Amino acid sequence: QLQAYGGGLVQSGGSLTLSCAASGFIFRNYDMGWFRQPPGKQRELVSSISNSGVRTNYADSVKGRFTISRDNTKKTVYLQMNSLKPEDTAVYYCVRFWGSNIASWGQGTLVTVSS
Fold it and tell me: Whole-angstrom distance between the N-terminal and C-terminal Cα of the chain?
């Protein structure tokens, strides 16, 4: 199970940190990530992190502004979002990867960035 939280309303240029608490599986064995779905658009991969936390990847649209991290002792993955823009408005989903596939999705958390 993946429980995401931390979304909310923030002004353009502001910051938010999303958290995703995992349970029911051996967290340290899995790569994790965040997807988002803007209003009226398809879901897109925002960022991913390897099981050890050593390797991270980011969508071009968030590079330099978002940082993904994880704490394997707390079984939690984070997404620090800085310099937020209105186009970052979306429902954000935490995911667990199995290879290149998505093994499970968390419930979404809404991030709204006002201009």
Answer: 34
Nearest in space to 42 (alpha carbons), one of 90, 102, 108 = 90
Residue type, 101: N
Q: What are the helix and strand counts (H, E) for the chain?
A: 0, 11
Task: Identify whether the C-beta of residue 59 lies closer than 8 Å to the C-beta of residue 47.
Answer: yes
CA 90 and chain centroid, separation: 11
> What confidence tens digit (pLDDT) does each residue in 97-113 have?
999 899 999 999 999 99
What is the pLDDT, as a whole number, of residue 82?
98
Q: Rounded to whole angstroms, how far apart are CA atoms 78 and 115?
A: 24
Per-residue pLDDT at 67: 98
Nearest to 11 by CA among 81, 107, 94: 81
